[in-house]
Design brief:
The complex is a heterodimer of chains A (about 100) and B (about 160). Chain A has strands at about 10-15, 15-25, 45-55, 55-65, 70-75, 85-90, 95-105. Chain A has about 100 residues and is mostly beta strands. Chain A has one domain: Immunoglobulins (Immunoglobulin-like), CATH 2.60.40.10. In chain A, the strands form 2 sheets. In chain A, strands 4-3-6-7 form a 4-stranded antiparallel beta sheet, with no helix packed on it. Chain A is elongated and about 50 Å long. Chain B is of the alpha+beta class and about 160 residues long. Chain B folds into 2 domains: about 1-35; about 40-160, Immunoglobulin-like, CATH 2.60.40. Helices cover about 25% and strands about 40% of the residues of chain B. In chain B, the strands form 2 sheets. In chain B, strands 1, 3, 5, 6, 8 and 9 form a 6-stranded mixed beta sheet that branches. Chain B has a 3-stranded antiparallel beta sheet with strand order 2-4-7, with no helix packed on it. The longest helix of chain B is centred in the first third of the chain and has 27 residues, at about 1-30. The chains are: A mainly beta (about 100), B alpha+beta (about 160). The interface of A and B includes residues 72 and 75 of A. Strand 4 (about 55-65) of chain A pairs antiparallel with strand 6 (about 110-115) of chain B, so a sheet runs across the interface.
Chain lengths: ~100, ~160
């Protein structure tokens, strides 16, 4: 199933550090929930999220099924200058992918 | 007959050599793109108990000194109306944090998230997890090659279908 909703990302400079907030649009089905007909919804969840700053990989998050629907993350990066490119890529267990990118301001 | 076995031997030698060179090249990391971090650890994420998940991911953990870490779960703390999205926050003064793992004791698969940090990343780290029922949430931090563990109890009104 393709995921069409858009991911959102914000990066802000605060006290010399970068604050990044990410909201990914993903249903995060665990494989244990049922649809309205009582049939199990197959598992589909994000497994791997990576964050790049100006082409350098700075963080990787591995998710299990217990990560909430439409995963939200907030973290800080040391330093940073206005115009830095922050990129997030994710992959789920079925191979669906997403990229979202923003500029630090 | 003699010729045939000779040929086979040569072919075998050739293959062995090319295989070993390939292995050498691969081990130096020339072939693969720079991979700092490992693959998705499926043993750890599909483990049924906290102990198994931890062992598969990190190994044994020791208890964290309370003042070195602030781990908040739920809002207001220790309580969540909806278990489907329980916020948490990790702040720590430990140096050289390499990895943070979040586990929910009573979930079918306890390991919720494993965060691999580089020196560029600063805490706090905030995110949301699913919690199936009233449970203990464990944060395991790996810093300087040592493991630290802290936990919080949380009660949820509506269990997150996890």
């Amino acid at each position: 199933m393709a995921i069409t909703a858009r991911d959102r990302i914000r990066a802000k400079l605060k006290d010399g550090d970068t604050t990044v907030r990410v909201l990914l649009a993903h249903p995060m089905y665990t494989g244990r929930s049922k649809d309205e007909n009582g049939k199990l919804i197959p598992a589909q969840f994000i497994q791997d999220i990576r964050c790049w700053r100006n082409g350098n990989e700075v963080m990787a998050i591995k998710c299990g099924t217990a990560t909430a629907r439409n995963p939200y993350f907030s973290f800080q990066l040391a330093g940073g200058a206005v115009g830095d490119k922050i990129m997030i890529r994710w992959v789920d267990n079925l191979g669906a992918k997403g990229v979202t990118e923003t500029e630090l301001r | 007959m003699m010729e045939n076995s000779d040929k086979q031997r040569r072919q075998f030698l050739k293959r062995a050599i090319s295989a070993s060179t390939l292995a050498l090249v691969a081990s130096t990391g020339l072939l693969a793109p720079r991979r700092v971090l490992a693959h998705w650890p499926s043993d750890a994420f599909t483990a049924d108990t906290v102990e198994d998940a931890l062992l598969a991911l990190l190994g044994q953990a020791q208890d964290i000194p309370e003042e070195k870490v602030s781990f908040k779960v739920g809002s207001p703390p220790s309580y969540a109306v909806n278990g489907a999205s329980v916020p948490f926050e990790v702040i720590s003064s430990l140096e050289n944090i390499e990895r943070i793992a979040i586990l929910v004791d009573k979930n079918p698969n306890p390991l919720a998230m494993s965060i691999e940090l580089t020196a560029d990343v600063k805490l706090p780290f905030k995110s949301m997890i699913k919690v199936a029922e009233d449970s203990k949430i464990i944060a395991v931090i790996r810093a300087d090659g040592k493991l630290y563990q802290t936990s919080r109890d949380i009660s949820v009104d509506i269990g997150g279908c996890s």
